[in-house]
Amino acid sequence: MPTVRITVADQTITAQLADNPTAQDLTDQLPLTLTFRDFNRVEKVAELPRPLTMDGVPAGDDPDISDIGYYAPSRSLVFYLRRRRLLERHRPHRPVH
Questions:
Q1: Buried b (16+ CB within 10 A) or exposed e, 28-66
Q2: Chain-centre distance of CA 93, in angstroms?
Q3: What domains lie within the chain, and their CATH numbers?
Q4: pLDDT digit string, tens, across residues 52-76
Q5: I need a surface site. Which of 17, 43, 69, 82 has the fewest CB within 10 A?
Q6: pTM of the model
Q7: Does residue 46 register a pLDDT over 80?
Q8: In this structure, what are the phi and psi dihedrals at residue 24, rounded to the nearest 5 degrees?
């Protein structure tokens, strides 16, 4: 599983991504500088420069708090802050540590 470093302001955290084509496609775009915006106080989202592959991953998932995901319709990297119901076309990765 790929591990990535995420820096926000002066804090750096590490996260493990899932072992799937979507996560690999994300790591192929690194390094990235993204601007995140709040979405309904449930998640933070940022548009990626290009879409990620959806090959070989399920059509939806049920992300947990602190998961990182991908929302295909808007090419968005997503940090989940609060619990949501099943979301179609979200690809969660591993929790942020």
A1: eeeeeeeeeeeeeeebbbbebeeebbbeebeeebebeee
A2: 6
A3: 3-88 (2.40.100.20)
A4: 999 988 878 888 888 899 999 999 9
A5: 82
A6: 0.78
A7: yes
A8: -60, -40
